[in-house]
Amino acid sequence: MASVIHFTIATVAEESPDFRRVLWTGKNTQLVVMTIPPGGEIGEEVHEDIDQILTFVSGVGEAKVGGSTKKVAQGDLVVVPAGTKHNFLNTGPNPLVLYTVYGPPEHADGAVHHTKEEADEAEESGKDEPPTED
């Protein structure tokens, strides 16, 4: 029998200084916290076969999804359907902190990327691949 997997997610997200930290990876979904520094961004991308749900914990920014732009702040949730071009930018003076759920997983289980540059390098080198079923 599986034990309860529990996070006080807003606290965990706020306490993580890392650009990206994978908290949990399941067969069909993955939970990740992110901290985007002032003036930073996730970077424009498309996940062809992955839905993504982002919930903002603190800070202010812009969500650019499918050609539309919307301001985001604490308590907002944004859905990015698979195959949709998107980017999230920090437009405020403080870190933009969020947690996101990918379905299916997008990143390597347990991955921690301290900066966007480190995350980009891991993705480009193939070191940030989601788990595969054998």
From TrEMBL:
One of its GO terms (molecular function) is isomerase activity. Gene3D superfamilies: Jelly Rolls. The keyword Glycoprotein does not apply. Residues 33-102 form the Cupin type-2 domain. SUPFAM superfamilies: RmlC-like cupins. InterPro entries: Cupin_2 (IPR013096), Flavonoid_dioxygenase-like (IPR052538), RmlC-like_jellyroll (IPR014710), RmlC_Cupin_sf (IPR011051). Residues 107-134 are annotated as: Disordered. It comes from the Bacteria. Keywords: Isomerase. Residues 107-117, 124-134 have a biased composition (Basic and acidic residues). PANTHER family: LIGAND BINDING DOMAIN PROTEIN, PUTATIVE (AFU_ORTHOLOGUE AFUA_6G14370)-RELATED, QUERCETIN 2,3-DIOXYGENASE-RELATED. This is Mannose-6-phosphate isomerase, cupin superfamily. It comes from Geodermatophilus nigrescens.
